[in-house]
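[Meeting: bench + compute handoff]

Bench side (C.D.) handed over the final construct sequence. Compute side (W.E.) agreed to return the predicted structure before the next meeting so the bench team could plan truncations. Sequence as handed over:
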Amino acid sequence: MKCISKELKKKLSRFIWWLRYWLLSVFASFRRYDYQHVFVCGFPRSGTSLMFNMITASLDGFDYVNRETTAVEWMVRPGNYISKVPDDMFKLDFISSHNPYRKQITAIVLYRDVRDVLTSIHQDYPGDYYVDYLSRKGGRAGMCQLYDQLMKVRSYSSVGVNVIVLKYEDLVADADAVQEHVSSNSHLRFSSSFSSFYERPDRLVYGEGSAKSGKFEWQKVNKGRHGKWRSESHRERVQVVFSQHPDLFIMLKELGYEKDDAWFEEFASREG
C-alpha cells in the first residue's frame, strides 16, 4: 500500500508541475520578467558542491535551495534562484524549453580528471568507488555517458541557456580567476570573492555539520586537492579500469590532461 501511495504521490506531483507550467506559459507570455536562474551541474565528484557554496556566498539577490533539486522545478517559480544537481547536465534542452518566465539561465558545468572521478569515494557509499565506467552508485550515468554528454555541452548553443564549462583543477588552483571568467561570460555580478566563500558560513548549504557535506566544501580551498588518483591505494583501481576501458585514455587526451599514454606505463611500473 505504501508503494502505491508513493507512486500516486509522484504522479500527482508531476501532473501539478505540468499544469502549473501550462498555465504560466499562457499568462507569462503577456508580460516580461527579469528573473534569473543559476544552476551548477557536471561530473559528480568534480567540485559541484564547492562551486555551489562559492556562488551562494557571493551572489546577492538570489534564493538558493538547501538540498539537491533539479533546475526544472524552479523554472515554474517566480524569482531568482540558485540550484545544484550534477545530472542537470543532461537536461539543458528541457530546462531551456520549459521556462515560462523566460528567465536568464546560466548553467555552470564542471568536469575533472577522469582518474580522480573514478577513484573518488562518496560519503553516502563509504568504502567503495562511486563512479564506474558504465554506471555509478544509485544506478545513474557512469563515466562513459558523463563524458559523452560533456562533449555535447561544450558545443551547446541555445538562446535560453548560457553555458559556462569549468575545470575543477582551475577552480581549486585560482578560484578568483574562475570567478572573473564566470562574471565576464554572464550577467552575474558578485559581491565577494570565491576564494573567501568560507567566511560566510551562514550562506553555505554544504557547511560544517551538514549531512551532505564532505570534508572540504566549507573550508578554505586546498590547492592540492587534485591528483589523488596517484595514491598507492588507488593503483589497482586505475590499472584495472583503464585496461578494461581503453576509451578512458582518449578522454584524458581530449580533455587536455595528458598528451599521450606514457603516464600509464610509468604509473603501472612504479614500485609500491
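W.E. noted at the follow-up: Residues 2-28 form the longest helix (27 residues). C.D. will use this when planning the next construct.
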